[in-house]
Write a structure and sequence with these properties.
Layout lengths: L2 E3 L2 E5 L4 E5 L2 E6 L3 E4 L6 E5 L6 E11 L3 E10 L2 E10 L10 E4 L6 E4 L2 E3 L10 E5 L4 E5 L2 E6 L3 E5 L5 E4 L9 E10 L3 E10 L2 E9 L14 E2 L6 E4 L2 E2 L4
Antiparallel strand pairs: 1-2, 2-5, 3-4, 3-11, 5-6, 6-10, 7-8, 8-9, 9-10, 11-12, 13-16, 14-15, 14-22, 16-17, 17-21, 18-19, 19-20, 20-21, 22-23
């Protein structure tokens, strides 16, 4: 059963969750609580008794209209300190938060679900990623210049996002791509590398991306190149593709 207050909802998870700081175990639980503080993705609240690190009270609090007032703690383990990185609601508006600690995701060095490292945020059990091979004819243009032309796309369908067309690198004008220093991470797909695109005197920053070594559920897009329909012209089987 879930528990909700306003736009925030909570429900029990059943994965083993561990997190580390400086190589030392901060928490280890098989009873995580998934809390949707925003509608896009959840965060973990962990039972207080499953936190191995020392929580040092800072004497400060933070108020949330949907969750109540939280005490703020520093996390100390093995000589490492993550300042103000833990919070606990002693009298929460959502009863299931009682006895749980919220550890700031970015303040920890690593998070694991079972024995697989997870990046950015917990995986939402209601999000699905399908990477499907296709024979649709996809053409990508920028200012009338063809950037890619392929009959072998992989179309990635991800809950809450528009379909993305990933194209074989051999079907992309590689001479127009300039490697970018930008790297982003996705808990469902992995780490992304980006490319600028130069057409004549025009250069568009980070206009294409690729997952060289995607996570297991997204393996079909490995090494393929994607362009955002919001910034280029894409036709699929002769029809203009509009971002939804």
């Amino acid at each position: 059963m879930g528990d909700a207050q306003g736009r925030v909802r909570a429900e029990p998870g059943n994965k083993r969750v561990r997190t580390y700081l400086g190589g030392h175990l901060v928490a280890d639980t098989t009873r995580p609580l998934l809390v949707w503080e925003s509608p896009r993705y959840p965060t973990y609240y962990l039972p207080e008794e499953d936190v191995r690190a020392t929580l040092e009270a800072t004497g400060t609090t933070e108020r949330s209209p949907s969750r109540g007032t939280a005490e703020i703690f520093d996390v100390r383990v093995g000589g490492h300190v993550a300042a103000r990185s833990a919070s606990a609601y002693r009298d929460p508006a959502i009863d299931s938060l009682r006895g749980h600690v919220r550890l700031d995701w970015q303040s920890m060095d690593a998070w694991f679900e079972e024995d697989e490292e997870v990046f950015v945020h917990p995986r939402d059990p209601y999000t699905r990623v399908d990477a499907l091979r296709s024979t649709r004819h996809v053409v990508v243009e920028l200012g009338g210049e063809v950037l890619a032309d392929s009959h072998a796309p992989v179309i990635l369908y991800e809950t809450g996002h528009p379909p993305r067309h990933y194209l074989p690198a051999t079907d992309v004008r590689r001479d127009l791509l300039i490697p970018s220093d930008r790297v982003t991470h996705c808990p469902y797909k992995g780490s992304t590398t980006y490319f600028h695109v130069r057409v004549g005197d025009r250069e568009e920053e980070d206009l294409a991306w690729s997952y060289p070594t995607p996570l297991a559920e997204s393996l079909p897009i490995a090494g393929m190149v994607c362009f955002p329909a919001e910034r280029v012209d894409i036709t699929v089987d002769g029809q203009r593709h509009e971002p939804s």
